[in-house]
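The following record pairs a protein chain with its ligand, pyridoxal-5'-phosphate.
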Amino acid sequence: MTPDARETVDAYARHVNPAFMRLLGVLGYGRVFTRAEGNHVFDAEGRRYLDLLAAFGACPLGHNHPALRAALLACFDASPLFFSHVGPSPSAARCAQMLVERAGGDLSICLFSNGGAEAVEAGLKLARAATGRPGFLSCHGAYHGLGLGTLSVMDDTRLRGPFEPLLPGCETVRFGDVAALDAALRTKRHAAFVVEPILGEGGAVLPPPGYLAEAGALCRKYGTLLVLDEVQTGLGRTGAMFAFQGAGDERCTPDVVCLAKALGGGALPIGATLVRPEWHRKAYGTMDRFDLHGATFAGNALSCAAACATLSVIDAEGLVAAAARRGEALRDGLAQRLAGHPLVREVRGRGLMIGVELGPVDAAGLARLAAPLRAVVSEKLLGQWIALRLLESGVIAQPASQAWDVLKLTPPLTLTDTDVVTAIDTLGQVFDACRDVSSVLAAAAARIGRNALRGFAFP
Ligand SMILES: Cc1ncc(COP(=O)(O)O)c(C=O)c1O
C-alpha cells in the first residue's frame, strides 16, 4: 500500500469507523479508492474497477461528469448567496421548477433537504400535519433511511434494535399485497402509506403490475397519503424518469414523491420531496406554519446547481431511454449467462436496477450442511463472497443491504454497451468459479482464517 493510502486507512480506523475497517479486513475487501472517472473507479494501487454499485445508484452520470463539474465551477464563479433564509433563491426556484415539470400532474411543491432519509422524513411529517392522523403504514423489507422517523417505518430488527422505542402507530404489510393493504388502510389510522416502487435494498423486488396504481386508489379512498420513496428508483434508474410513470402504473397519482441520491449527480448531497399543493397547504400553508419544516443547507445554491445540471444531462444524453435499453440488455444477458447455475435462483429488475438472487438453499452441496449453517451460507456468505471475487476481478457490486442473498446492480445510467459486455462476462466468470458450494465454503474459510492470523488487517 502507498504511504498516503496507509495514512488514510490509519486515520479512518482511528477517527471515523473502526469497526467498518476491521470488517473490510475479514474477507479482504480492503482497498483505498482515490479517483473516479465516468463509469470507473481507481484504487491507490492504480487498479481500475467498473462501478456497478455507483453509491447505491447515486451516480446517474457516472463519476465527475464534465457538465456537472462545469456547472459547479460556474456556480462558484457567480458568487451566489448559498442560502435562502432571507429571501427566495434563484437556483432553488429553478431546480424546483425542473423537478415539478418532470413529475407532471399535481406534484407542484418541492421541499428541499440534504439526502434520502430527510426527504422521506419530510413526507412523514407533512402527512401527519396534513391529516392529523398518527400512524404510518409501510412494507416488509423496505429501506427508507437511518433517521429515527424513517427507521420507524422499517421492520429490520438489527437496524432498529438499539434505538427502540421508535415512533408509535407504525405497521407493516407485505409488499405488493393489495388485499393486505386494503385491510390495513380501512382502519383509517394512517397518515401515510410509505412505499418504494421497487424494493431496492430489499433485493430489487418488483411488485405485481399495477400495484402502485391500486395502492394510490386505496389511499385516496381511505384518506391516507401515498408517499412514494423514489430515492433509489427516481430520475431514470428504472427506465422511466420516475418509476411511478413506468408501464402499468400510469394511473398512479402519488401525493408525495421523495427523491435524493441521483439528484446530486453523484457529487452533492440533496433531497427533494414533491408534494401535491392541497396537502402542503394543510400542513404548512399558513404564516405561523411556513417554517415547520426545513434545514440550514436545504436547497443551497451548490446542491441545486448540481441537481439542475444532472437533470439537464439526463435529458441531453437520453439517459432515461438508455437505462431502459441497457438495463434490459444487462438483465437478459445475465439471465442467459447464468441460466442453470446451481446457485442462482433468479435474475430480475427494471431498467438499471437489477438483482441476482442467490440460492436455492437446497442445492446439493448446501443440503449436506446443518440447517443454521445452511442459512448463514445462503443468506449471508455467498453474496459477500461473490462480491469479493467480483472486486478482485475489477467489478464493484454488493449484495442488497437488507437482502445479502441478492447481488444488486445499480450502475451509472451512462453504462456503455462495452460495459454491459464486461459486466456479463465478469459476473459469468466469477459465478462459473462458484458452482460448487462446498468449494466456495472451503475457500472462504481458508481466506477468513488467513486474514484472522493477520488480525483482519486492512489489507
Ligand atoms: C429507497 C431509499 N430511501 C431512502 C434512503 C436513504 O437515503 P440516504 O442514505 O441518503 O439517507 C435510501 C438509501 O439507500 C433508499 O434506498
